[in-house]
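Training component of the fellowship. As part of building independent skills, the fellow (R.M.) carried out the full modelling exercise for a liganded target. The chosen ligand was pyridoxal-5'-phosphate. The inputs are recorded below so that the supervisory panel can assess the work.
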Amino acid sequence: MIRKISYFSTNRKADKVSFREALLKGLAPDHGLYMPDHLPGIDEAFIQSISRKNYHEVAFETARLFLHSEIKDADLFELIKDAYDFEVPVENIYERKYILRLDQGPTASFKDFAARLMGRLMQYFLKLEERNLLILTATSGDTGSAIANAFYGLDNIQVVVLYPEKEVTSRQRRQMTTLRKNIRIIALNGKFDDCQALVKKAFSDPGLDHLNLSSANSINIGRLIPQSFYYIYAYCRAGHTDHPEKTVFSVPSGNFGNVMGGLLAWRMGLPVKRFVIATNENDEVPVYWQSGSYKTIVPSRNCISSAMNVGHPSNMARVVTLYGGMMDEAGNIVKEPDIEQMRKDIYAVSISDKKTVETIAGVYNKHQIILEPHGAAGWAGLMENFSVNPEDADPGQLCISLETAHPAKFPDEIRRVIGIDPELPPAMKGLDQRKETFMRLDNDYKLFKEFLKDNY
Ligand SMILES: *Cc1c(COP(=O)(O)O)cnc(C)c1O
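Fellow's submitted model of the complex:
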């Protein structure tokens, strides 16, 4: 069978660890991000063998290539079946152009895919070790609700989410505050940065060591690997799996975790022609592609695709590693990657808010499909790619663009642009009527620490 995979740090100053250790640690001790030291291969026969399977079956067959030496197949299958109990539509738009809808999970964003499996994997390993974990998360909206929902009701894990009282929408808030059980929500009288600062301080406070704190943030390897599964699944649904047809993927990107999952699937052997990375006006990566010099954007620019307002994607360090280079956590390039190859493999483009809005209107008028701002940036990126690489627009060329959230999460924008109130997905129905529970806290570390010591 396949060689056991170990995980190294992108900063190369920490020991290699198992998946379990990388998952429970999150960040490597040298502040780098964990990456697999080699990837399992998938070939035509593998793809054919899974081409008619359901989402959770495709996810299982792929996950076991990474995890077979650490989790028994039967256990892994149960975790995955439980994590992925929702639809994953692959919608044909025209010719061989598709949209992969990652918006049918409990919080209607693609973050559900990663968070739900990560939570179950953590629970599995914690039970084996008879250990508990307290997850602290600061959120500006989407991450907190995905984590809170994904971890809701799990054993051995408690969750505290801090959100800035005045900076989240009421639907985002309700997706967190209507849960209870092992989930506690704090409305902080402050800004997102204040929430993040309190969480960071708690992590480095020796007085809280006994609480076994962890962060579940987006750089955890346990969130990355599950984000390779849906690329393989989408190919199985839309591709000619009986001969190696290559596809173009377009990915709306902020922290680059999503696209990193796709690049992993490609390196494993999924037949891909090219990736399109579509950012919003936070264009540090498209500029890097053009100029070869990388500069973070501080503070990040506010765009309507708010989950992509990232001025320095933390997963860039992983992309750079994949191309033979090294980038530290501040965004300094310590060793140059093969940028020529990056440019060949990936077309990176920045999409303005104006273009995003035009795309929402245009796609609705032409195809009667409602896209929200993030998915619209992805689709606009694909269209931009057609003007640079016209052969990708050929009727026979398979292209798959990712829709990362449900339009009902952005009702004001959608109403304003196309005059329609998008229907709530099943998971969000009744949300506006459920009872909310949360506590208010002033922005004061002493109060936060007291809260943690009193309750855990
Ligand atoms: C988080 C998020 C993104 C960005 O994904 P990354 O993995 O950070 O690139 C895009 N769209 C939506 C709706 C999101 O919630």
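The panel noted the following from the submitted structure. Residues 109, 111, 142, 252-258, 307-308, 374, 404-405 surround pyridoxal-5'-phosphate (CB under 6 Å). Residues 14 and 30 are 6 Å apart (CA to CA).
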